[in-house]
Amino acid sequence: MDKKLATRLIDVCEGRAEADLLVTNCKIVDVFNKTVFEGAVSVVDGHIASFSPEVKAKRTLDAKGRYLLPGLIDAHCHIESSHLSPAAYSDLVVAKGTTTVIADPHEICNVAGLDAMRYMLLASEGLPLSVYLMFPSCVPATDSEHAGAVLLADSVAAMIGHERVLGLGEMMNYPGIAAALPFVMDKLECAYQAGKLIDGHAPDVKDRDLDAYAACRIRTDHECSTPEELTERIRRGMYVALRQGTACRNVLDLLPGVNADNASRVMFCTDDCQPQSIMENGHIDYAVNLAIGAGMKPERAIAAATLNAATCYRLADRGAIAPGLRADFILSPSIEHIVADEVFISGNLVAQGGRILKPAAHIRPEKVSGMMDVASFDESRLALPLKSDRARVIGIIPGSVVTENLVEEVRRDADGLFVHDDGLDILKIASIERHHGTGNVGVGLIKGYGMKRGAVATSISHDSHNIIVVGSDDKDMAVAVKELIATGGGITMVQDGKVLMTHTLEIAGLMTDRDAHTVYEELAKMHEIAYGQLGVPKDIDPFMTLSFMALPVIPALKITDSGLFDVTAFSFTDINP
Amino acid sequence: MDKKLATRLIDVCEGRAEADLLVTNCKIVDVFNKTVFEGAVSVVDGHIASFSPEVKAKRTLDAKGRYLLPGLIDAHCHIESSHLSPAAYSDLVVAKGTTTVIADPHEICNVAGLDAMRYMLLASEGLPLSVYLMFPSCVPATDSEHAGAVLLADSVAAMIGHERVLGLGEMMNYPGIAAALPFVMDKLECAYQAGKLIDGHAPDVKDRDLDAYAACRIRTDHECSTPEELTERIRRGMYVALRQGTACRNVLDLLPGVNADNASRVMFCTDDCQPQSIMENGHIDYAVNLAIGAGMKPERAIAAATLNAATCYRLADRGAIAPGLRADFILSPSIEHIVADEVFISGNLVAQGGRILKPAAHIRPEKVSGMMDVASFDESRLALPLKSDRARVIGIIPGSVVTENLVEEVRRDADGLFVHDDGLDILKIASIERHHGTGNVGVGLIKGYGMKRGAVATSISHDSHNIIVVGSDDKDMAVAVKELIATGGGITMVQDGKVLMTHTLEIAGLMTDRDAHTVYEELAKMHEIAYGQLGVPKDIDPFMTLSFMALPVIPALKITDSGLFDVTAFSFTDINP
């Protein structure tokens, strides 16, 4: 707010100036009182002036009795999970009524460090979608694999002052908080000094550990599993984000803990969403509708998706329909099931009938393109010498990112090297370091992927995003890895030495500037090939499954660029037991 | 919060360090969920660490099952109304469980301008009570009398950056907002630029005027009269402070508009309280208990008096009992009727059984003492020549600050000067400018004060705080005025040329460093004399009534240092109709 805008708003209210737009005949959702009232909304200079239908206006829109509600806010997301650049992501989610997101660029920062922060800020500047960032607190997420960057307190301090950086991102290192590790406390100090927020991520943290976590003013959590956990976090002053992402969902599990008296302390978030689920189910609107469907009072659910998030993140200019606030709003025919018929941002119509009117402008991702610094890689690096026929094997559990730590009988050739046996569902899996040209390649075995012949590789590999590749023979695997190196990253499938299809993710190997619809169709085609020609069973996702096989903080056995990692023992382990 | 404190808190939670204090066996009021739970509260370095009874502690206090609730917050008050300096005020209200106040030093700033702001900041530094200030937005409140200072945007800009100045004080000039007057908008701009808040004061403002008022982000109002007004303000994003002061009270009137869905948008305030009402009824505890008595859920009422005010005023370190927050709390035997059995501030016991343990330290009010710059005053200045026997007379309406504009038959002497008639309840009243030595004296007549013989004078005279004097003869009046000039201000009573008693207010003529109990007893004695020896009728307050006779923004007829003012016509008027 400034004097000029305030004066314009007053002048419109008092009839001394014309509004740019007057929306009449609406049922306005009042998220402060959690009621609906009939009125009009006038807009000037992108902000709401008055509820009076009698102000003068250049243009009038008859809402025909529809509900007018604030633009929705996603309290916590990783844009990278959509495979979309900020601009393409904006086009996708704005059409669903989301007008503001709090994004943690944890994935791309693990690849490109501060360059990634700068890219995300630049690429999200001036979009229809308001993008606020949290500075990722845990880069790298673990010491057991090599990420592209190490972001310590000096890096946090360098960026946290930016007006669109709201604070320190989800503090996944809760053991580091409990231990008050100096390098963790130094990052918190940056947020304290800047007067900014700290997001949480505290699955299963409870009692005195939760006290310690809250005591250092970590303000949010989106990792609750039960209503009791929600109550305990709210009790300690935290906001709880109810999450409805593509894979991780807890809205319905947590709702029994939400009531009239604590509803102002909950918000909604998506965390990680694939374009498919956004296009098919929706974004924050989907979470709101789920909550309403489960019995939450609509105005309370809408307040959670707007006012509460704005309050938590101190976005004083939005989160409600009220004079002086940004004119970010949705027209919906219903309040029991909200549908973003028309979406207005700063008073301009930007989407209609679920489609964006004008795609957002992209910026060139120069500093985060071609992030493939792989040294001395060739097929020979994938050889896996075994001392016996009994080997440790990563066991895929369908629908889970947890794996089993198996010991299986496998085939070896005359030189003692692993060879694929058509009769056994055991494939080779490798993680190839791609950030610093270390030449690291970790090779292991995996069971349950079901592929008969060929290779699949991806540069999305949480959280360090090295190249992960699975395959029935070293040649196909090497072709797949080289394809990703050549394209700057993405997901590729190879059979008989030939690339079947590549879903290119040219931005840090994680995202693309292509639009959501194209990405959606590509991914659909990719899945079709994986399930058909490659024979991956339908109870696992061929690509997301791979993406978690290198994450050495989730049990039980994982492959990193430094070798096979026993998460339970929290140490590297030998392939032969 | 800083790293050092955060580390200490974590260490206590995790058992690596001892807490300073552990309060066990409490029913903790959870204002986030609005519930009560049994637990313990540990404190280190003035902040709450954990709810666990198992942390190690240097000292343990058994709360014996009492309720432990956050220290109360007064969302809007004028400390000056208590006649007490900030230190004496702290002693008084802390004993009632109020641990934080948002104070608008509007009165003293009308006397001493920026010196008054500096004094209030200095005198409230380091008290047990946390005193935050709002920079008064309306000094002077009117052009129709002479105040001690004119505070424009440059003055606001000079002080609003102070860490204990939360923003711009109650914007009483709502017509100035509706008109978007540049000097008013310039003050708002100071708050916008500093990222600070703006308090409201908008009696009867509605519809498009209220839209305009809210559109410029005025964030609070404490002047609602009906539940509908409360709803309309909350709807526009404002917080509503329910007021329970000595004279102005609206808690019970507004409560019917408060429900589970909007309760998070209301707070409590006292605005103006005399020491007597605080000592006899209480402070914010009184308002909370009234609300609970009228049916408000206790946890909601307590949240209104704590969390909601802290949220509104962005005091992130207080307002609840939770790890990481200041250890400002109360032990009360009941939650249905809270009683501040014991009051802790920063974890230290400061009051017990309604009594402060150690009086707060005062600072010398040098720059705001002896604020009596009165020029060329003597008895002759009180002469009132009349052109006829018919004169305009200010008519007191008992229990109201509104007056009647009367025309009465009065007595004149041979020279045409007004003389007091024992048979008529018509006295002379005068306002003597005391800030700039202008020599201004305005003289008029008043009916209904009931005094038979003598004079009463006070330097509390809203909002400019010139000396106001009423009397049956000029000599007594002159003695009274001279007594106030000699003592630096206060309230005095004179009869037959002798001072009967003076309640000295040596700080700007408004406040004293004497303690609340002394002030209470002095005022009781003063009232006894006024009602007894001077014959003032009991249906009016002899001193507060006078204090509003110079306020030319409240109808209908008032006396200012520039003369008789017809508020209805909004112009000066002649004594003879």
Automatic annotation (TrEMBL), chains A, B:
Question: How would you classify this enzyme at the top EC level?
Answer: hydrolase
Q: What Enzyme Commission number(s) appear in the record? A: 3.5.4.2
Q: Tell me the GO BP annotations in alphabetical order.
A: adenine catabolic process
- Pfam families in alphabetical order: Adenine_deam_C (PF13382), Amidohydro_1 (PF01979)
Q: Which reaction does it catalyse?
A: adenine + H2O + H(+) = hypoxanthine + NH4(+)
Keywords in alphabetical order: Hydrolase, Manganese
Superkingdom of origin organism = Bacteria
State the Gene3D superfamilies in the record. Answer: Metal-dependent hydrolases (3.20.20.140), Urease, subunit C, domain 1 (2.30.40.10)
Cofactors that this protein relies on: Mn(2+)
Q: Which InterPro entries match?
A: Adenine_deam, Adenine_deam_C, Amidohydro-rel, Metal-dep_hydrolase_composite, Metal_Hydrolase
Q: Annotated Gene Ontology MF terms?
A: adenine deaminase activity
Q: Does the keyword Nucleus apply?
A: no
Domain Amidohydrolase-related positions = 67-336
Q: Which residues form the Adenine deaminase C-terminal domain?
A: 401-570
Q: Which NCBIfam families does the entry mention?
A: ade (TIGR01178)
What family does the entry list? Answer: Belongs to the metallo-dependent hydrolases superfamily. Adenine deaminase family.
Name of the protein described by the UniProt record: Adenine deaminase
Q: Which gene encodes it?
A: ade
